[in-house]
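Course assignment 3, question 2. Fill in each field.
Student: A.L.
Task: Predict the tertiary structure for the chain below.
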Amino acid sequence: MTPEDINRACLTRSSAQVMEALDPDREGFWDLVIARIASGSEPWLQTVPCLRLGAVMSDNPEYVRDMDRALAAALPVNPVGVLALAGRGVSLKAACSYPFPDMDVALARARIGDARTALERVQEERYRTDRQVCELRLGKVAEGFRSPADGTAGTPR
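Answer field:
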């Protein structure tokens, strides 16, 4: 199934019906969709408003968590594409709060730095407020990775 197929289905069905038709429990399918969204691919990011609503309406909270992590991974790759989703009803709170609690501290710091650098490159005025909010959220997460004792190590608070 292509992102165009998903978006076409979203025009004629509810988000819950689209999720049911996609059968995310099918072996490996949901992981493939999430990986494509995480890649920052614009066509796949366009499926997020419908799929995220379907994920929220599903009985499986893992779908929402997966979607949030995919958006966080896509942020450094395609910050404009991710920020544009805010205008389509998608909350960027999780994407901008770095929802990877089990990640190695050094890798997490690098990923947060990459996301912040990518956001700094977004100059379009229409994204200014969402960009600033996202930068602030990432800054707070980055602070959580500092240990009060030495200022270098720690886990997010």
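Instructor remarks: Residues 128-144 form the longest helix (17 residues). Residues 3-74 form one domain.
Grade: pending
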